[in-house]
Design brief:
The protein is mainly alpha-helical. The chain has one domain.
């Protein structure tokens, strides 16, 4: 068998190993982001704070935000710390807090998006290498049909593994991106309500 055919066979196996490694990396990012988003809370977690703002119970709002770990509570802590300096200080403080939270929560999401869009192409590359091996075996008539079938099965496995890596990564990215948008929308709405009650 030609050296380049053997190289193609080994390269196809390396592609499979690479895809399996990427799958493990993807799952580890999903678990880590799930923990981070769970700690950040759910959209709507600030309903109790909204009631306290509505009644202008600033002491109660301070106690509520000090006891909670959700992003809404952290945003209100940032707002309360600077509100004594005037309401014009609130927006920059909240914007700074939300920017740091966005950077923290977005860690790893780019990797998920990249894996989701590129893993099928890596699988396709493995498929091409497997087909090269299958046709080389057929041309040399060594091993008969079994060698050809082995090469084709390796090619199809590479494609399947590529999709196996890509599909969960895309789904996870979309879920986390949607939750991030919802959290930030909720925080912005709560901030605007807080500012409106400060003005009253």
């Amino acid at each position: 068998m030609a050296t380049w055919v053997i190289a193609a066979q080994w390269a196809a196996r390396l592609v499979l190993i690479l895809l399996l490694g990427l799958s493990v990396w993807s799952v580890s990012i999903m678990i880590d982001r799930r923990r981070a988003f769970r700690a950040a809370g759910e959209p709507g977690a600030g309903e109790e704070a909204r009631k306290l703002i509505g009644s202008r119970d600033w002491a109660g709002l301070g106690q509520w935000s000090a006891k909670r770990t959700e992003m809404q509570a952290g945003m209100l802590r940032a707002a309360l710390e600077v509100s004594k300096s005037g309401k014009e200080s609130v927006d920059p403080a909240v914007r700074s807090y939300l920017s740091s939270e966005r950077a923290r929560l977005e860690q790893g999401l780019t990797v998920l998006a990249t894996l989701g869009s590129n893993a099928p192409f890596i699988g396709l590359f493995g498929r091409v290498l497997g087909i090269i091996h299958a046709f080389a075996a057929l041309a040399e008539q060594k091993g008969g049909v079994s060698s050809v079938m082995t090469g084709i099965s390796e090619a199809l496995v590479a494609t399947a593994v590529g999709l196996f890596v890509a599909i969960p990564a895309v789904v996870a990215y979309n879920v986390f991106a949607r939750k991030l948008r919802s959290l930030f929308t909720d925080c912005e709405a709560l901030k605007d309500y807080y500012l409106s009650r400060l003005e009253g």
